[in-house]
Each structure stands twice: as C-alpha cells, then as structure tokens.
Design goal:
15 helices, binds S-adenosylmethionine, three-stranded antiparallel β-sheet, alpha/beta, binds zinc ion
C-alpha cells in the first residue's frame, strides 16, 4: 500500500508501524510536527502508550477472560495495534479516526503486524462510533480516549460504551486550563475551578476525574480510579465503571474542594459539593482560594499498580526504569493526603537555599508525620504535617547561606 505523504517505519514496544515522517513537517524549529502531518503520530507519547498496554493487561488478568478494546481516536493506530500485539487475552480491538488517511494507515499497521484478523477499523466521528457501540451486548471492556486537548467531548459516549466493570483511560493535554492559566476554560470544560498552585498537576488529575465522576453519575454509574499519572504536557487517568445509583452516589461523596492560602501555604479539603466553604485561612487570616469541585478520593489503587509493575518487569520496554519508578511512586502515595508541598517553592518564599528532599522526609517522619515523595514533582512531598511545621523543618534544614 502506498501513501501520498512521506512515511517511515518505526518500532515501539512489540509492534512496528508506518508513520508520517515527522522531519518532513518540521519546517521551522517551533513547528509541532505531529499535528502538521496528515495523520497524527507523536513519538513522545510512547510512555503513555506503554502504561496503557500495562494497564490493559492488568485489567484483562483481573477479569480473567478475553476482552474487547476500543480506541476511538486512533491516529496512525499504533496504540491499538500494540494492544493487539502485546496484550494477552484481547479478543478484538476496534479502532476509529475521523480522518480517512488515519483509518487507512491504522488498518495498514494492523496488517503489518499480522493482527488484522483481530483489529477492526472505522472512519467516523468518535462520538458516533462510541454511541453505535453503546448497546448492552456491543459494549467494550476497555476504552482509551486519547485526543488533542480535553477528553471531555467524548466522555459521555465513552462511559455509555463501557461494559459493567469496564476500564476507561483518559488523556488530557490541555494543561493551561487544568493548571489554572485559563480558569474559565477549565470551569467550562471540566465543571471545576482550577488553581495555579505548586500542586496544580495533582489538581489537574482531580479535576479530570471529578468531571468523569459527575458525568458517570448522570447514568447511575460509579467510578473507581485505578491509576493516574502526570508527565510532560499531559495527565492521564484510568478508572473502572460500575452500574448502580448507590455506586454513583458513593462517587459523588468523594467530590469536594481544596482550599488554599497563597500567603502561608496552608491547605485543606472540604468534602461534598454543596458544603459551605471557609473563606479565611485558619493559620494566618489571609483569604483562602478555592479549587473544585473536584475528586478528593483515591487516584490510584495499590493492587492494580502492583499488577502493572509485575507486567512491566516482563516486557523489556525501552523506558522500563522510568515506568517502574513511576509505578513505585504512585503505589507509595496511593493513600497519602491530597496536595503536596514543593520544597523549592517553600524555599523560594522563605528566601532560603534548598535542602535535600530526603532530609526533609526523614525529619518529618521522625517527628511522627506521614510523609512520602510524589510522582507529581521530584521536589514534592505529601504529608499530613501542617504547613507551618513543613516550613519550620525546611528552614531548619536549609544549608546556611
Ligand atoms: C492525539 S491524536 C491520537 C493519538 C493516538 N491515540 C496515539 O496514541 O498515537 C487524536 C486523533 O483524533 C482524531 N480526531 C479528532 N477529532 C475526531 C473526532 N471527532 N472523531 C474521531 N477522531 C477524531 C484526529 O484525527 C487524531 O488522529
Ligand atoms: Zn494562611
């Protein structure tokens, strides 16, 4: 088969794929080649696809039967083809893209990898495609929504196209709204207020999951988050769906707000969507800022992440080290408090040199506080210590100027 644009063959995970030759679309240094090419392909998202392969395999093993998989915005098809090639127990992979060239390339890549018999490719709008598969016996065990920007326009139909207990994977690349640079856009899209704090990446995950929880609740569906991560320019969340009004109510109970004081680093959570909110910082009397409503429940499940870890150790993926580090951090902080402190930001405010992270962790732990590093920032710590104690300990440990 030939394509009327420059292509090259690449290898990723256990698959190979013909993709647009990105160097041909880099006319100027600031050009973003993946979206200039006639079919979307972004090599930087390999890690995102690796985690998806591991999560799908863990999900399949927990279900203990063959699964059907859907990627409604597939681009060159690499993610879906990797599912068919690398994941055991996949019955069928349904790929779709609105661009005819993308659908054609995805079909070609399925053939190239010898999995054409279990990959079906469609060429229509993702919402239409998902809705056509939302009838009880057609639904999928896994839906992976990996669009440009927010996944919100596809959430409703993706939820409806999932079987009971199915796993939904969501990518959001619109970090400017989610991290509070464009707060109105975030409120509009995700239904929650973001905040430009040092822990905005965690808030981004919680806003995304909160939006999912509220959307699922409308269909009397509850959610459980199994894994989430924040890397580079995007956040990602994996959650299972379960039918039942009570389950939906239980999810809604995990919604709430984060109240933050920009003057002294104090932060606290307020459970419930309709609860009255404190306006004044109990620590310093300054005005509190509000993020939410967002998800205050867990954003990872230890057992699921350890299954992913086991899978990661067996595959010889190129970025195995990075994957294992992330999975270990995520498991370690699965039960840690909401929000984190960044040692560098605290030092910035106190005008102090930055002490080593380990020293801060040890000191807080010795004083009896819960404290763990976080996946969200290499200088971040999650702790139940009050902001004043965190500041005091950091100041004591800061190297003398
Ligand atoms: C970020 S890319 C997908 C990348 C792919 N998931 C991967 O892992 O390589 C988003 C894709 O969505 C497709 N798309 C955009 N709007 C769509 C729609 N309404 N329905 C279906 N596909 C759409 C684009 O053509 C593009 O290929
Ligand atoms: Zn304060």
């Amino acid at each position: 088969m030939s394509f009327d644009f420059p292509t090259e063959t690449i290898k990723e995970g256990g698959a190979k794929a013909v993709v647009p030759k990105l160097s041909a679309y880099m006319k100027k240094p600031w050009d973003y080649a993946p979206s200039k090419a006639p079919v979307f392909y972004n090599p930087v998202m390999e890690l995102n696809r690796d985690f998806a392969v591991l999560a799908l395999q863990a999900h399949q093993k927990l279900l203990g039967r063959k699964v059907s998989v859907c990627e409604p915005l597939t681009g060159c098809g690499l993610r879906g083809v990797r599912f068919a090639v690398e994941v055991e127990g996949v019955r069928k992979v349904f790929l779709n893209d609105i661009k005819p060239e993308a659908a054609r390339l995805a079909g070609f890549n399925a053939e190239l990898n010898g999995v054409a018999d279990c990959v079906e490719v469609a060429n229509e709008d993702a919402n239409l495609f998902l809705s056509r598969n939302a009838a009880p016996r057609k639904r999928f065990d896994y839906v992976d929504v990996d669009p440009f920007g927010p996944p919100v326009p596809y959430l409703d139909s993706a939820i409806r196209a999932l079987r009971k207990g199915g796993l939904l994977a969501l990518t959001a690349t619109d970090m400017a709204p989610l991290c509070g640079v464009h707060p109105r856009a975030c409120l509009r899209k995700y239904g929650g207020q973001p905040l430009r704090t040092e822990y905005c990446h965690e808030l981004a995950v919680r806003l995304l999951v909160g939006c999912l929880a509220m959307m699922a609740a409308k269909h009397a569906i509850g959610i459980k988050v199994l894994f989430s991560h924040s890397i580079d320019h995007y956040v990602r969340a994996y959650a299972t769906v379960d039918y039942g009004a009570r389950k939906a109510d239980k999810s809604i109970k995990k919604m709430g707000y984060v109240l933050h004081c920009f003057s002294c680093f104090h932060r606290e959570t307020a459970s419930g969507i309709a609860s009255p909110l404190k306006r004044v910082c109990p620590s310093c009397g300054a005005k509190l800022s509000v993020a939410g409503p967002l998800w205050l429940g867990k954003v990872a499940d230890k057992r699921f992440c350890s299954l992913m870890e086991r899978e990661a150790k067996q595959r010889g993926l190129k970025q195995e080290k990075k994957i294992l580090k992330m999975l270990s951090l995520v498991q370690n902080e699965a039960e840690a408090p909401v929000t984190y402190y960044r040692v560098d930001k605290v030092c910035d405010k106190l005008n102090l040199p930055i002490p080593g992270l380990k020293k801060v962790i040890d000191k807080l732990r010795k004083a009896g506080f819960q404290v763990v590093p976080t996946q969200f920032n290499s200088r971040g710590i999650k702790t139940d210590a009050p902001a004043d104690t965190v500041k005091e300990f950091i100041a004591e440990l800061a190297p003398k100027k």
